[in-house]
Amino acid sequence: MKEVREYILNNWEKTFHDPSEMRGDFVVPKKYVSPSIGGMYIDLYYWDVYFVNLGLMKDGFDQQVENNLDNMAYFIDTLGYMPNANTLADRSQPPLFCSAVYDYYKHKEDKSIIAKYMPYIRKEYEFWQTQRMTSFGLNNFSTNADEEFKMLNYIHLSDRVLEKRETREEQLALAMDIMAIAESGLDFNMRFKTERSKIDAGSFLHLDLNCFLYEMESKAVEMLQILGENTEPFASNRAVRKALIERYFYDKDQGIYLDYNFVDNTFSQIASAVSIYPYAYGISTEAEGLKKVLKGLEFDHGVTPTPYRGEDVYYQWDYPCAWPAATCIIYKALKTLGLNEDAKRIAKKYNDTVDANFIKTGRLWEKYDAVSGDIGQSAEYDTPEMMGWTAGVYVYFDEELNNENA
Fold this sequence. Notes:
Layout: H1 2-11, E1 16-17, E2 32-33, H2 46-58, H3 62-79, H4 97-108, H5 112-131, H6 147-157, H7 168-184, E3 204-205, H8 207-227, H9 234-249, E4 250-251, E5 256-257, E6 260-261, E7 266-267, H10 277-280, H11 287-297, E8 298-299, E9 302-303, E10 321-322, H12 324-336, H13 340-361, E11 368-369, H14 388-405
Antiparallel strand pairs: 1-2, 3-6, 4-5, 6-7, 8-9, 10-11
Helix pairs in contact: 2-3, 2-4, 2-14, 3-4, 3-5, 4-5, 4-8, 5-8, 6-7, 8-9, 12-13, 13-14
């Protein structure tokens, strides 16, 4: 809708901040972008920036895209990884820096972009391969927090996830689960539910992270080939990772990918949006599995991160909320497999829902209700006004839809 595009175009720069405005212990070198114009989300958040950049590139804000990459590179150089946010440095978030560099390179068609950021891609990759590796040869989300900060997370978030523990040891273990899921960006939903806990992340191998790292390895190989440089260790690790993903995450009985519970030797009970990630990043081209998962996630006004499960606990990255990040990855999966009409339908549902709520409120929102079409609600916190990835994904979808109709 023209009015939404104009609103976004007129408000992008209100989310750009001078480095002196940054809270916490760090000062980035360039202007940074926040998800919201005001309120609680005025910091720099990792995976939000990836989706913001999709819109900024379409709207001609190339300098801010490069600023964003420079700021992420600064954090990677300083900490060894890009943190969840400048005020949340105990953990990272989905590793999309390499993909963001690749997108910007494709946008500008300038291989000097690859040369500029490749050292930081390598350094971030080392973090994931050394500090987030499991004995299975796959990677899991976690945290770098000390015991005191873990306890603070337990105190502040145990009510939010509806889980309590008695002993300090048990509380620390629950805090690890809370913080690992926070690092995944999908905080929270029930894909790690077991008989022991609603969020038993420590009992699972994490499908989404390994899909993101497979994509990092794939894009790094392609960019290193462009530079004429050695593609190791990305190429060999990618081959190993793909085999391990097929071994541990693919449920042959259902014909879909799921997080793997290595304690109980079972799969996740929930085919979430994460089950679509292997199709988005070229790990599988089997369309039937994708369609099977999508059927449980698609509703009249969008797609949800998890299906409806009757009388169950529903967090915010859960039914019935439609989030732009998950919607975008699902869209890319459909496009990757050539399911263009399905992709178009998903993109249109999302943008139509944004349009309808913009007409009613004059604002964009963090998430929407895929069932009712209203602003998304959850028990965890009130849904804030937001530019951020809502604007980025809206612009990206609008351009994609317009190109298809041209």
